[in-house]
Amino acid sequence: MAAFAAAHGRSPGLHIVLVGDDPASHIYVRNKERAGTEAGLIVRVHRLPAEATVDQVLAQVQALNADPACDGILVQAPLPAGIGKHGTERVFDAIDPRKDVDGLHPHNVGLLVQGRAALKPCTPSGVIELLDRLGHPIAGKHAVVIGRSEIVGKPMALLLLQRDATVTICHSKTPDLKDTCRRADILVAAIGRPGFVTTDFVKPGAVVIDVGINRVDSRDAVVGFFGADHPRVADFDKKGSAVVGDVHPAVAQVASAMTPVPGGVGPLTIAMLLKNTLTAATARG
Asked: Are both 83 and 184 inside the same structural domain?
């Protein structure tokens, strides 16, 4: 960031559009704003009410497209239910692909499929970065991705494939799901179901990446996850909820490595967002 600022006389600008009052979205945006500012970005959050229309959100996006101080645009998902699926697609399609730091615009997705994307989806990019930095080889490994979302599942599979893994994508209609997962050297869970992946899904020694972030409001469920004496239960008693992943904690006894929730993939997702913002700013000059 310092080198960019010295060369261009300004810091890269990340602009986040936050629509509505979803508590989780507000937490995510606050974390992104804090991390970006600490890294040297200029971060601006544009807040719109839950009652905002598609046209109002589009107007905000178009204003940022035209703003020379804006290098990266992130529209925080999910948008309010009133926007609808079609409206959500219109909003994300309206983002200038050169400022699409989420890497989800159809133009950037097409480049991703061809292995030419400069702006790649943040969470899958963070997973690749994690595997590389911890020295877990990807080439020649069998990777199984549970989940086929546009944000994580599909781009995750593409990035693993581009690193010479043999990739299987699983979803709710996959027969013999456990058997398929048990063949994985690298297992990525991204389905949004707390503790869905248990020890019988995992081959001994596999690397398990837990992308899930699920808020649990049942004390019994938290005890079932961690045991009655675990500090996470005491934390639940203070807060009234707990954040858990898609992978049951017992899987750590089988896997050779496993990401924690929270504190695993989440911070890397934010790091990749900051990297994409710098990439976009550098390309714009």
From this structure: no
164 a catalytic residue: no
102 catalytic? Reply is yes
* 121 three-state secondary structure: coil
Q: Which of 71, 96, 100, 102 is catalytic?
A: 102
Say if residue 131 is in the same domain as residue 210.
yes
Q: How far is it, in rounded angstroms, from Cα 278 to Cα 247?
A: 33
- Residue 33 shares a structural domain with residue 126: no
Catalytic hit among 60, 71, 76, 185: 76
**Model pLDDT for residues 175-204, shown as the tens digit of each residue:** 999 999 999 999 999 999 999 999 999 999
Residue 229 has pLDDT above 90, yes or no: yes
Asked if the peptide bond before residue 262 counts as cis, ω within 30 degrees of 0, the response is: yes
What is the tens place of the pLDDT at every residue in 100-139? 999 999 999 999 999 999 999 999 999 999 999 999 999 9
The residue with greater pLDDT, 256 or 3, is 256
Nearest partner of 36 among 281, 270, 285, judged by Cα? 270
CATH number of the domain residue 40 falls in: 3.40.50.10860
Judge whether 74 and 99 are in contact, CB under 8 Å: no
Indicate if 32 belongs to the active site.
yes
Q: Would you list the DSSP string of 79-111? A: PPGGGHHHHHHHHHHHS-GGGBTT--SHHHHHH
pTM reported for the whole predicted model: 0.94
- Which of 32, 99, 120, 275 is catalytic? The answer is 32
What CA–CA distance (Å, rounded) separates 98 from 45?
19
Residue 23: pLDDT band with limits 50, 70, 90: confident
Identify which has the larger pLDDT, 8 or 145: 145
